[in-house]
Amino acid sequence: MGTTTTTLPLHVCNVKKTDMIINRLHIFLHGAALLALFYYRITTLSQIIKTRETPLIPYLIVIFSELVLSFLWLLHRPSKWRPVTRIAYPERLPEDEKLQPVDVFVCTTDPNKEPSLGVMNTVISAMALDYPPDKIAVYLSDDGGAPVTLAAMKEAWKFAKWWIPFCRKYEVKTRCPDAYFSSPESAADKFIWSTEFVADRNKIEEKYEEFKESLEKNLKIIGSSVSKDHPPIVQVINDENGNEKDSSQKGMPLLVYVAREKRPSHPHHFKAGAINVLLRVSAMISNAPYFIVLDCDHYCNDPTSARQAMCFYFDPEISSKLAWVQFPQHFHNISEHDLYDGNLHYYWREWEGLDGLRGPTITGCNFYMKREAFYGVDRIPKDADLNQLKKFFGSSNELIRSTYKSYKPNVSRDEGKAGARYNTVVEDSMTSLILHCKGWISVWIDPARPCFLGTCPTNLNDMLVQQTRWAFGLLQMTLSKFSPLLYGPPRMSILQSMSYGGLTLDPLYVFPFYGLGIIPQICLLHGIPMYPKVSDPFFFVFAFVFISSQLKHVQEVVSYGDPLRTSLYDLRVWMMKSGACYLYAVLNAILDQFGLNEANFSLTSKVVDDEETKRHQEGIYDFQSSPQLLAPLCSVYLLNLVAFIIGTARIFQSDKGKEVFAQAVLALFGITVNYHLFQGMVLRTDKGRISTSITMIAVAITGLILFFGSLLVFF
Ligand SMILES: O=c1ccn([C@@H]2O[C@H](COP(=O)(O)OP(=O)(O)O[C@H]3O[C@H](CO)[C@@H](O)[C@H](O)[C@H]3O)[C@@H](O)[C@H]2O)c(=O)[nH]1
Ligand SMILES: [Mn+2]
C-alpha cells in the first residue's frame, strides 16, 4: 500500500506520452493558426464596414460561428493536456475482513421499456460480485412501482441462490446469467474436464430456464402496469425465506426492493430523486460507506469491479480526497459499425484527459462513491445542532442517527442538501461539478475486460432523443447558478473549470453548424466571397485550420484504438447532434427559462427489435425518426447540394467565381461527409430510409432558407 518501499502498489497510473506530446504540439500550432485567422477577420471586417463591398450581416454570422467553434475548441483543450490510463491490482488488497461494505443501487422505471428479465440480470450480476457477500447489499429502485418488478425480484432471489454458489465454485467470470448462457465461457482451467462441472452447469441452465418462464408467467398474470400515485414500498427480499441466520441466507447478499412514494402533484426528480431515496433507505438498513449506481441495463461483466475500486480507496495517498471511482459505460449490443457513436468514445477519449487533471465527472452509472462525499458531510462543523442537521439531511431523526453513528459528520455551511442534485436531467454532471468544487478528486479506470456492459441506442431516433435530453440538461446547468465557467474558477482550477465548460457548452455547436452550413453556401450562390482567395496567403491559414482539425480528430480516433471509419461516423454524429439535438435543446432551454417547458426524462428503450438490430449490425443507418429531428438535417444537406452544383458551375464560368472556391469546398465537404443522408433520401428503398414526406418537408424548408437567406445578402 505504498507505506513501505517493498510493498507493491495497488494501482498504477500511466501517462499516455505520445498522445500528450501530439496534443500539446497541436494546441500550439492550431492555436497560432486561429490567432492568424482572427487577425484576418478583424482587419477585413473593418474594411468591409468602410467599403461595404461584402454584405455585413452574413460576414458577421460567419465570424460569430468561427468564434463559437474556436471557443469550444479552447474549452476542450485541458482534457487533452495530460491523458492517463490506470490499472488496478485487486489481488494485492488486504484480506477480506478488512474490506469495507458496498451498497449497490440499481434504478429502473418502466417494465415496458426496460423488460424485467434484463433488469433482474443486472440485479443478479450485482449480487454475484466477487466480494464478501455479507458486505454487499443490492437495492433496486423501481420508479414505476410495478408489481411485476417486485414479483420478478422474488424469482430472481430464488434463482440467485443457485447461481451465486455456482459462480463461486467454478470461478465464473461472466456473472450475468443471460450473458453467460448466450455465449458460454469455458470453465476455469482446473474444472474444464470435470463431469461435475458439466452436470452442475446443465442443472443451473435448467434453473435459469425455469426462472425465465416464471417471469413470463408473472407478466401474463400481473401485467406490466406502472403507477404514478402510490405510497412508498420497501421490501427486504431475503426475509421471504426466513431470518438472517437461516442457512438458505448464508453466502447471499442483502436484496431490497424500493418503490418510493409517487404523487402526481409532486415532482419526483427522475433518476436523481431515485438515487437520493436509495441513499436514505440504505442508510437505515446496511449503511455501507461506499455505494455504486447501476442503470438497470448495465450488468456487471467483471465481478472484480468492487475490488478494483477498493484498490484506490485503500491507497493512503489519495483515499482521504477520493470521492468516486468511475468505470466507463461499455455496451454489449454495439456493432462493428458503430454508426451512432453508441459506445460513447467521444466522451471516453476526453475522460482520460480529465483523469489527468483532478478526475472525470460522474457519468450516470458505474461509479463507486464514498457515501460521506455524496452527503457533503465534509462541510458540516463538529458542533452542529439537530436543527442544522435537519436542514441538511431532511427531517428524519432516524436517518441522522444512523448517519451519525457511522460518520460523525460535521455540518454544512452551504445551504445544499445531501445527495444527487435535482436541478437538471444530467444529475451526474451537476453533482460531480459540486463535488469537484469542494476539493474531492475522482478516478477513471477502463480495464481491458469491461466491468459493466449496458444497452445502447441502436437507431438514429433513440440516439437523437437521448442526446437531446443530455444537451438540454447541460444547458440547464449552464443557465443555473452552477454554470461551470462562473461557478468553477473561484473553487477549482481553471483547467478543470474549462473542461466542465466544454462539456456543458457543447450544445452551442448548433450555431456554427447552421452558421457555416447555410451562410457561405447562400453567398456562394450569389457569388459573394466569405473567405480569402486561393492566391491570398491567408487562404493557407484557413486551409490549415480546417485540415488540422480534421486530422487531429482522425488521430484521436485511431490512437484510441478505433478503426479509421469511426472518424467519419463520428463526424456525422457530431453534425446530426449539432443540427437536431442541440437545436431542440437550445429551444427547450429558452422555453424552460420562461417556465414553459415541462420537466421530462424520455427513457431510452432496452427492448430488442430484430429488424432494427439487423440494420445496426450491417452498418445501415436507420432513419425511422420523427420529421422534427430529420427535416432540419436534410434541409441543410439539400441546400449544400444545390449550392455546390450551381456554385461550381459559376466558378468555371467566370473569373470572379474563383473567389468563392473555399465555399464550394465547404459545400462539397458537407455533402460528402453526409452522403448517408443522400442515400436515405434518394437511393434507398428499404424500411429504414428517410420517408418521402420528410424529404418533401426538407425541400420546402430549403426553399424557405434560400429565399430568406438571400434577403440577408442585401444587408
Ligand atoms: O424517472 C426516472 C428516469 C430514469 N431512471 C433510470 O435512469 C437510468 C437511465 O435512464 P436511460 O433511459 O437508460 O437513459 P440513458 O440516456 O441511457 O442514461 C444515461 O444518461 C443519464 C442522464 O441523462 C444517466 O443518468 C445514465 O446513467 C446514463 O446511462 C435507467 O436505469 C432508468 O430506469 C429512473 O430511475 N427514474
Ligand atoms: Mn441507458
UniProtKB/TrEMBL annotation:
Which keywords label this protein? Cell wall biogenesis/degradation, Glycosyltransferase, Membrane, Transferase, Transmembrane, Transmembrane helix
Compartment(s) where it occurs, according to its Swiss-Prot or TrEMBL record: Endomembrane system
Pfam families per the UniProt record, alphabetical: Cellulose_synt (PF03552)
First-listed, main subcellular location of the protein, grouped into a coarse class: membrane
Which InterPro entries does the annotation name? Cellulose_synth, Nucleotide-diphossugar_trans
Cross-referenced Gene3D superfamilies: Spore Coat Polysaccharide Biosynthesis Protein SpsA, Chain A
Q: How does it sit in the membrane?
A: Multi-pass membrane protein
Give the transmembrane ranges. Answer: 25-44, 56-75, 508-528, 629-648, 660-678, 690-714
Task: Report what the protein is called.
Answer: Cellulose synthase-like protein
User: What is the species listed in this Swiss-Prot or TrEMBL entry?
Assistant: Rehmannia glutinosa
